[in-house]
Amino acid sequence: MHQLYFTPGPSALYPTVNLHLKDAINKGYLSASHRSATFKDIYKETENNLRTLLSLPDNFSILFTSSANEVWERLIQNTVENKTLHLVNGAFSKRFADIATDYKKEAVVYSAKEGEIVNVGEIKEDNEVELVAITHNETSTGVSQPLEDIQKLRNKFPDALITVDAVSSLPIVDLPYDLIDSAYFSIQKCFGLPAGLGVWIVNNRCIEKAEKLENKGIITGSYHRLLSMYKKGKDYQNIETPNVLGIYLLGKVAGDMLTKGIGQIRNETIYKAGVLYYGLQTHPLLNPFVGNERIRSHTVCVFNTKGESERIINELKKNNMVIGSGYGSFKSNHIRIANFPATGKEQIEMLADKINEIQ
Ligand SMILES: *Cc1c(COP(=O)(O)O)cnc(C)c1O
């Protein structure tokens, strides 16, 4: 029986993936050399579609990694000599700070209570900080750091590089690229694609920083050094034999999103989030985990459950609907519902109706 997935990664496939997958096979793209003109054209199309979809300025490059986890490590290796600063709103932002510590960097950590965000007003200016790490959408708890905070951080850290984890919010979030230096996502979240590819967006300041570190004799990694990735990327290639299928599908789905219109997709996301948060408002077993509406995620909706979350999850499974459990220690008392572009308005309405039947 066909299942409807509302899980926050891996997540429901974008409706056109089936078609593009068949095309990729039929056209022989998956056997073509990754040094061929065929591959370079695929890379070029993906890059161009992403640039347009995200309104990415020319001073940013698009690079491919294995996933977002890899980007964390590459950022630490290639842009930090001594000191980082992390806004930790949950498990994913904490993991990035831990990687900085693994690399023996001095990681300054500001942590929020679960379900809340770091108050940027409390962050002290510090001109030794080289990299400021923000998580726009914390998938573990369903909080979003407001975009206004990026401006405040830029004012406090005029010289540092600012990087934004937008793994579960791009392309829904319209990031202020003039204020940041790097952003990244994995394709199995908002883009509704099979897992196995990360996208790392970097500007010239990141490249210059990596050069500076290398000139000092600092090791910035080997096969995925930022500078070698950047150089190959300029020629629409990767260092390694890459995830050609992932790169191809990403370009095609980004193209489909452009055809639909990113404005339309963003509006639908807000509408569907409303169906979930307001449609389930009077549910006797549920209430939104994030109390403050201003910081509630539009793309990952998290609810506290009265009693075990498993009961609701299992009831929905009987209707072939799959939602996420809580993350980590919240496993049994939260549910998480992905509100990504792959999921239509009717599906979210149907889900809310079904959940309301569970009492
Ligand atoms: C899923 C996720 C990650 C990690 O992505 P991987 O693809 O597993 O590397 C990082 N940050 C956030 C906010 C996420 O949701």
Return the structural class.
alpha/beta
What about the largest sheet?
A: 7 strands, mixed
Distance between the termini: 25 Å
What's the architecture of the largest domain, going by CATH?
3-Layer(aba) Sandwich
Enumerate the spans where pLDDT stays under 50 for 5 or more consecutive residues. none
- CATH class assignment of the largest domain: Alpha Beta
Mean pLDDT figure: 97
- In CATH, the homologous superfamily of the largest domain goes by the name Type I PLP-dependent aspartate aminotransferase-like (Major domain)
For the secondary structure, the number of strands is 14
Helix content: 25-40%
Short synopsis of the structure:
With 359 residues, the protein is α/β, with parallel strands linked by helices. Helix content is 39%, strand content 18%. GO terms for molecular function: transaminase activity.
